[in-house]
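User: Second chain of the day. Same drill as before.
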Amino acid sequence: MKEKSTSFLERKLLNLKRKMFNLFPIMRGSVVEIGTRNKQPHFSLNKNKKTNLIYLGKSRAASAKKCSANYKKMMEIVDEITLINMELLKRKVDPTKISYENS
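Assistant: Same format as last time:
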């Protein structure tokens, strides 16, 4: 991470928190098309080494895709937050002591 001030990193964390809050609803998984001739949208989730499928139909496929995309964006934000918190820990700043409220 490029050399940034600690206060800049704290402000960045606050902005990432706001972005994450606005991502709901979220769903881990993906929309897949199943079928040989007449492909139908299903939501697929792998949990406990087992694939769970639910039929969506055309009316719910767009909503499920949006929720899945929100999850992917959330995970990107979590990765960015992790890098910032690692940098703060290197600087001997405790991330749990930072105020994440509007400053």
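Helices lie at 6-21, 57-90.

User: Great, on to the next one.
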